Amino acid sequence: MPSRRAIPILALMTPFGVALGCTTMELKIDDNDEVTPGGRISYEIYPGIDRRRSGTLLDLVTGSSAGAQGNAVTAQSAGIAPTISIDGEIASVEGRDHEQVPAGQQVKLDEVILGPARVKLDAENIRGSLAARGGIRFYDVLSLEAMMGLGVDSTDLRLRGEDVTASHDELLAGFLLGGRATVRPIALFDLYAQYTVNFTNEAWKTIEDAQIGVELNLQRNVSVFGGYRWWRYEESLSNESNWELRIRGPTAGLSLKF
């Protein structure tokens, strides 16, 4: 029979024994229909934005004579040509989810929550990139291009549950790789699909960003875009709970071209 002195020690050791016996869960945010606002700026080094077809919204509204005749002549003179551009982009998104922690498991983000418990997960992300984009353009209608540059990603993670609140900020820089396909059936708008991966300075953290949409060319240098965007962030091999964030939904913003 344990002594009276041993009883408090056993009481203190019980939570630690439970914690040691728990397995640490991966935390996931899987959120749909979150809006991702963003902005882009692009400088076309070659063949140059002045070689693009005329026929923007401003041309149509003002009845510019550069429209129909200029379209055919410029497209034929452009032919098949290589492209070189420098792109800058910024975007932000928020996501939230709930997760049930069963008995015998725990979640850990600076603080530890033992199951059974229900936790609320929140994430805020802002990201930017500066990349070179180059490839080939066919008669100012179809462009197939690769992207390579630098990406910066700031993600704020928050965990709430069982009267415990924990947060974790990540600022990651990395090497950005990706590709973009653009179709311009008429000069008024572009259809595009783009995919990039940010290989961060920490090998176990990767960030993927994919989007499809349409750009309405208000005039030669200004467009507005809208579409759908998928963003995924994964962290593994951590001393705490691993994270997997998947946030997707509509995207919209302003694009400047020079």
Explained architecture:
With 258 residues, the protein is mainly β. The chain has one domain. Helix content is 13%, strand content 66%. The strands form two sheets. It has a nine-stranded mixed β-barrel with strand order 3-4-7-8-9-10-11-12-13. It has a three-stranded mixed β-sheet with strand order 1-5-6, covered by helices on one side. The longest helix is centred in the N-terminal third of the chain and has 16 residues.
What are the defining features of this structure?
258 residues, mainly beta, nine-stranded mixed beta barrel, three-stranded mixed β-sheet, 13% helix, 66% strand, disordered N terminus
Please summarize what this structure is.
By secondary structure, the chain is mainly beta. The chain has one domain (24-51, 79-257). The protein is built from three helices and 13 strands.
